[in-house]
Design brief:
By secondary structure, the chain is of the alpha/beta class. It has one domain: Alpha-Beta Barrel (TIM Barrel), CATH 3.20.20.100. Helix content is about 35%, strand content about 15%. It is built from 12 helices and 12 strands. The chain has helices spanning about 30-45, 60-70, 100-115, 135-145, 160-170, 190-200, 235-245, 245-255, 260-270, 285-290, 300-310, 325, and strands spanning about 5, 10-15, 20, 50, 80-85, 85-90, 95-100, 120-125, 150-155, 175-180, 200-205, 275-280.
């Protein structure tokens, strides 16, 4: 699998990455052996772009990656590690605070380096923009980490077009990580064009609509009570059935192209030719291999348009986060 550029600052990654969040929490109880086997399979199949964050667990996800790299003898140079700072969790598992203060940036980076067991981070994101700290100050502190050799490239997550422009005046931003999929396309009007203008690559998280676009979830009751998606408006009983109608085209077209709905949804992103790297998350090696196969699926302009129109903004029912979490987005 040939690496491709992510942004125009020199970072090269696999054309599809691995989102590691679900290996620690949010989607029910993970099996750590399965997760380690999936990470090993990713390495063996050249999926070299691994995405984590300090708040996943919290902290346990970074340690999981470190343990897997050490136990399996993975060559650190062959992996592009991306992690994030800025979302702070306390005793309340549902509470979130945002911290973009310069002194915290450096503390968080040092802590992530220690947990990951590495001496540099390939791509370091601000996980959420702190509304109380000018982005110039936060990115200024991140830029100092580059000078110190602790970080190679900088990124932001869920940042607005205006924030990207301000941040880029302080230091080049290599990547923006935002939710982007057939049913989450609110970045298309302003944010995606700004990324293209500034030479910023897009890392698409939840490219399978948190599993909805795989076609394997047929009703909300298919999710366990511990699953975070049970709190998401799009998976509520009211909205789910309406959204399920959108899936029929994906399933039909996937059947025509002899692929799975998940592969088709990923192929839609990969065929947009806009420097987009999807990072689907999975705990199972079999799903990882299924996702990798989407790289070889070609969609025509007509097929891309058909899918785009089927999932128009007015047709998706429910916001992508609960109200409290939507307020944390800088969009």
């Amino acid at each position: 699998m040939k690496k491709i550029a992510l942004g125009n600052q020199g970072l090269k990654v696999s054309p599809i990455g691995l989102g590691c969040m679900g290996m620690s929490e949010f989607y029910g109880h993970p099996n750590l052996n399965d997760c380690k086997n999936t990470l090993k399979a990713a390495y063996e199949n050249n999926v070299s772009f691994w995405d984590t964050a300090d708040m996943y667990g919290p902290f346990t996800n970074e340690r999981l990656l470190a343990a897997t790299i050490k136990e399996t003898g993975i060559n650190r140079q062959d992996i592009q590690l991306a992690t994030k700072f800025g979302i702070v969790r306390d005793e309340d598992p549902n509470a979130r605070n945002i911290n973009g203060r310069p002194e915290y940036v450096k503390q968080a980076c040092d802590a992530s380096l220690q947990r990951l067991g590495v001496d540099y981070i390939d791509l370091y994101y601000q996980h959420r923009v702190d509304p109380n700290v000018p982005i110039e100050e936060t990115v200024g502190a991140m830029a100092e980490l580059v000078v110190e050799g602790k970080v190679r490239f900088l990124g932001l997550s869920e940042a607005s077009a205006q924030t990207l422009q301000k941040a880029s005046q302080v230091h080049p931003i290599s990547a923006l990580q935002s939710e982007y999929s057939l049913w989450s396309r609110d970045i298309e009007q302003q944010i995606l064009p700004t990324c293209q203008e500034l030479g910023i690559g897009l890392v698409a998280y939840s490219p399978l609509g948190r599993g909805f676009l795989t076609g394997t979830i047929k009703e909300p009751q298919d999710l366990s009570q511990e699953d975070w998606r049970t709190h998401m408006p799009r998976f509520s009983s009211k909205n789910f059935q309406q959204n399920l109608q959108l899936l029929h085209l994906v399933e039909h077209m996937a059947q025509q192209k002899n692929c799975t709905p998940a592969q088709l949804a990923l192929a839609w992103l990969l065929n947009l030719n806009a420097n987009i790297i999807p990072i689907p998350g999975t705990r199972k090696a079999s799903r990882l291999l299924e996702n990798i196969a989407s790289i070889d699926i070609r969609l025509s302009i007509a097929e891309l348009k058909q899918l785009r129109e089927a999932f128009g903004a007015q047709k998706v029912s429910g916001t992508r986060y609960p109200e409290a979490f939507m307020s944390l987005l800088n969009i």
